[in-house]
Amino acid sequence: MVAQPFSPEISDPFAGDAVFELHRGGKIEVTSSIHVRDADDLSKAYTPGVARVCTAIAEDPSLVRRYTWKSNVVAVVTDGTAVLGLGDIGPAASLPVMEGKALLFKEFGGVDSVPIALDCTDVDDFVETVARMAPTFGGINLEDISAPRCFEIERRLKERLDIPVFHDDQHGTAVVVLAALRNALRVTGKSIEDIRVVISGAGAAGVACARILLQAGVGDLAVVDSKGVLHEDRADLNPVKLSLARDTNTGGLSGRLVDALEGADLFLGVSGGTVPEEAVAKMAANAMIFALANPNPEVHPDIAHRHAAVVATGRSDFPNQINNVLAFPGIFRGAFDANASRITEGMKLAAADALAGLIAADDLRPDYIIPSPFDQRVAPAVASAVAEAAVSDGVARG
Question: Strands 220-225, 228-229: parallel, antiparallel or unpaired by DSSP?
Fold first, then answer.
């Protein structure tokens, strides 16, 4: 039975609120995978029997995957600096989100996970803390860490650890966006090589989406931050944005978002704010609008539908929800099944293609370009594709 965090004598201002009641006592718990019913069970599960297993692992460390939970457990780690759209609210306030992530890992991918909220924002301290915990886990899911720190943290952990490290705010979003785009292109009859893409937002999600779309074949892509289009002549760009500027904006655009949108085939919003309707109206014929800010999309669907052939949001109450839960449970499931040492670009592309492929040509329509998170085919399809890609990319360890 889950312990109650408040005694009956203490007044609870949120009593009766359905959301708070669902969270009361937390959303997850640890359960045993075996039962200890008698002395014989106890002697096997703990001392003296457990010493034999410890000794075997000490002699052959690869056995840790077979005889502990390591092969199926992820650490969901944050510092609380970029939580949802709430910003830097600190580690304690981030914990309901981390619990939620752990819940989704289990519900949708059969992957166990532990939410960890760290009370440190220094990059060196964060990396060192996670690296020291890593022997307990089979993978690291980074979550809700502010940019540009998140890029450095992920890079350094990937270099240091031999287990999958995945920043979901970046790559989960990017995988689902690419899957949705694959099918939106089928609806509109456009090809990925010929479209012009404008991304609003150069944070974690914006950078990752830009990178995966370039890898998928988009040739004309511009990224816009709060100060305008990224280009090499801007003197205010951090190293991540400067690198992105060098690899994008082949059309030499400058100016603001409203300028870049003229003639664009795809608007991808991962930044918040509001895009004026007059700018949306100047997009290309049969345009695609993916306005993913929550709870208020950059372009409200009612406005977007006046000017676009396909519209997607990050909300569950509109069609075509771009939801990371379509990606991360299956990606880690596939990585674990292949005993992958890391998650490669090929594994992400394979996940996106698997997601897109779940919608048959006869079922495809403007309001159905991406599967529902409750489609039971999703996680197995993604996992299978990711595991195969791990083998192809040479990171599977059998």
Answer: antiparallel
Can you say which residues are annotated as belonging to the binding site for a divalent metal cation?
143-144, 169
Residue 332 to residue 369: CA distance in whole angstroms: 23
Classify 50-167 by CATH class: alpha beta
Q: What is the pLDDT of residue 1?
A: 46
pLDDT band at 23 (very low <50, low <70, confident <90, very high): confident
CA gap 107, 115 in Å, rounded? 15
Nearest Cα residue to 223 out of 268, 265, 185: 268
pTM of the model: 0.91
Is residue 67 flagged as an active site residue? Answer: no
Fold equal for 50-167 and 168-398:
yes
Residue 365 has pLDDT above 70, yes or no: yes
The pLDDT value recorded for residue 113 is 95
Choose, from 27, 46, 190, 227, the residue flagged as catalytic. Answer: 46
Q: Which of 44, 101, 227, 348 is catalytic?
A: 101
Binding residues for (S)-malate: 294, 323
Q: Is 368 an active-site residue? A: no
Residue ranges for the binding site? 143-144, 169, 294, 323
